[in-house]
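Hey team,

Filing this mostly as a record. A colleague (T.K.) asked me to run one chain through the structure pipeline before their review meeting, and I want the input and output archived in the tracker in case anyone asks later how it was produced. No errors, nothing strange. Just documentation.

Input sequence:
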Amino acid sequence: MPTTDANSAGTTWFITGTSQGFGLELVKQLLAGGRRVAATARDTARLRENLGEDASSDLFLPLQVDLADASSIDSAVHRAVEHFGSIDVLVNNAGYGLLGSVEETSDAEARAMFDINFFGLWNVTRAVLPQMRAQRGGRIINMSSIFGLVSGAGWGLYNATKFAVEGLSEALAQEVEPFGISVTLIEPGYFRTSFLGGGSLALPENAIDAYTAVRDMTEEHNKMEGNQLGDPVRAAGAIIDVASRTPAPLRLLLGSDALRLATQKIENLAAGIEQNKEITLSTDLR
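Output structure:
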């Protein structure tokens, strides 16, 4: 079955959400390594500014995309294929968070986040897949989070979008394997990016005073900015490396905090299953 060597010269990467954070670091490292990059952003001027001299590279194609608009996505994918000839690696990186309780998060806020974090990813993937199927190979890398495996108070909406990405990706991996296409979920912990600031973490418009613990958590995260454990440069390097591994892992945790939380979740899940096994088995027809 054909596979894509993502570290070979001439490989084309299509990355969403590249004006900051993991996306920007990926673009920098890929261009430095001689790979072609189609990079989407809401504001390509900001992307060019943050890239500096790299923005003038012939290997770089900036694309202004509204991920809530399927036609905008289709146009960007068409332009990338027309410009570079193919898309070999797709990185669905764009997304943002919201720190607020379930009750105080509005319907509009929930739908807006799903439009970017989930439906944007869904539509970019659907737009790229016909070309990957035709070339009988490709890599799809979906940026999830440790919060795609572990839920926490105040993160309910963000958890919901990332849990949805996890379920979609597991099914997708099985569907596209016959075409030589692999799917990998990246599950980072806290990294020293601008996620906790810079417009990537929203707050509910109508906060409810009773949720004092969530407000305290917001303050704690404000203090965490700039002190996160994870190194985004190393994370980007790990993502580039895993894109060339065969077989590709379905999941890749990034960061010691992600490993700790995932291990705790597995232990709690196993304990809960065992504790209630008698009830579970009692419901079969006899």
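Quick notes for T.K.: The mean pLDDT is 93. The CA atoms of residues 242 and 248 lie 7 Å apart.
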